[in-house]
Predict the structure.
Amino acid sequence: MEVIRLDKISLWRRTQEEFSYDLKKTFLSILEGKYRKPVKKLILDNIDLIVNSGEKIGIIGANGSGKSTLLKVICGILKPTSGLVRVRGKIAPLIELGAGFDPEISVMDNIMLYGVLLGFSRTEMRKRVNSILEFAELQDYALIPVKALSSGMVARLGFAIATDAQPDILVLDEVLSVGDESFKNKSQQRIEKFWNENTTILVVSHDLKFIEKTCNQAIWLDKGKIKFTGSANAVVECYLQTVNKADNS
Ligand SMILES: Nc1ncnc2c1ncn2[C@@H]1O[C@H](COP(=O)(O)OP(=O)(O)OP(=O)(O)O)[C@@H](O)[C@H]1O
């Protein structure tokens, strides 16, 4: 069964966002003669992709080729400039953990807020709060504002919320390591469990051995385009051959 479909996805971004949004800075940079007009760059270039239920897909490619951007488009964190994204089922985005939190409100309120963002109802989230706090080991922090947590605690909270319910689709940026040693083990176990089940998984990684070992399919992204797709072994081999050839020439 098809669970993700991307139809002709393209995404443009400004390369100098800071200039266009900070008026004072823009003004100063004009005075100093340093102002450059924001340049737009094509980050994803006409991507078509179909993912079926239960597939484990590795996404590889050079730095800046658009891998994280592609994941964010699939999760709905970024809207493509053109094209269609269709996703069926609950998605657990394990990327930029905690980026959606409001630092001023309590851990408990953030759990509710984030859960609703992920598509769960408030009633459902109310039932989940305790198990989330327990997994994140933050029971004593329920009423404390998120800004008072350490960055590791914030990541733990983000991980616990996204994975508390069994997701249909798991999206991971880089092999995940969250929190201290004991939490790392706990979170890895939870991910391994999803890996062994029918969960659809998309993972970005530079660890090609890991991709070969854990994924059945792979996608090689190159300058925002899908260069090659197929079995994980074939894609990794093709990628390595091309990279090595470029190094030797
Ligand atoms: N917030 C942003 N604003 C503008 N451009 C961005 C932003 N984030 C990323 N980009 C640009 O988008 C392109 C793709 O970035 P992306 O993070 O998707 O690459 P990646 O393949 O995941 O790279 P890496 O392997 O280094 O993690 C890069 O050229 C980057 O400069």
Notes: Residues 35 and 133 are 48 Å apart (CA to CA). Residues 13, 15, 17, 43, 61, 63-69 surround adenosine-5'-triphosphate (CB under 6 Å). The chain has a mean pLDDT of 90.
